[in-house]
Amino acid sequence: MDSRRPTALIQGASRGIGLEMTRQLLADGWRVAATCRTPATASALRDVATTVGATQCRVFALDVSEEDTVGEAASDFAEWTDRLSLLVNSAGVLHGEDFGPERRLSQVRPDVLHKVFAVNAFGPLLVAKHFERFFLHKERAVFANVSARVGSIGDNHAGGWYAYRASKAAQNMFTKGLSIELGRRAKSLIVLAVHPGTVATELSAPFVPRRGPDTRFTVERGASQLLEIFREATLEDSGKFFAWDGSEIVW
Ligand SMILES: NC(=O)c1ccc[n+]([C@@H]2O[C@H](COP(=O)([O-])OP(=O)(O)OC[C@H]3O[C@@H](n4cnc5c(N)ncnc54)[C@H](OP(=O)(O)O)[C@@H]3O)[C@@H](O)[C@H]2O)c1
Asked: The pTM is what?
């Protein structure tokens, strides 16, 4: 594998959209650094990495809610290469063992707000802080945060889902800020927020209607649509929020 080939980092690659983006980038010949909280239990990701070998894919431990692990992953990554062409923050949380999105105000819980904000909002910002140095080069590169349309304040017509919506809205503000600040130092860097649509992963599983067909995108399609956006984006697109079909979403 040619070490001059483009390198991507997929943050949140143990499963879902992040795992599938990793697979597709590897199939396209990219070198991929795939991060996940616990590599020891991420068997699907380890299988993908083992199949292509350590020259093309490496797995790094990174929990976005623990800044130390973000810094350590960046140091370990620096031993492999000094530049990135693509970084995608895909990790996200909508529900857990003892919580789901709030339907009404009485269901709001501070512990859930903290957890969801730590992963969805603060996580991508901390990754930017520790991985900025890999974008200080002159070649085209993309830094993308996987957001959600429900994080658009202008598009909120239904209410509810306080933690998830607000964490993605905060993430969107961080994305906008990063596009401005990083744009000053990394002149060829395109910073984006993207909405993948509803994709068939564990995150969306509890919300599939019991009756009628499953209309969610397959994970293969969900991932390939995002990768197409990253391929097509230009510097003029930096600081924008795009849906899976390339249409722009109001922040
Ligand atoms: N699927 C959809 O319909 C949909 C729609 C709109 C937006 N999105 C967004 O798309 C992104 C990917 O979602 P998905 O559908 O692929 O979800 P998923 O299948 O549930 O995967 C979520 C990923 O986030 C990781 N993660 C959770 N907490 C983490 C932490 N503290 N540190 C690092 N990684 C952590 C998980 O790792 P573990 O395996 O370690 O838990 C897993 O890899 C998310 O940001 C989500 O909000 C998805």
From this structure: 0.97
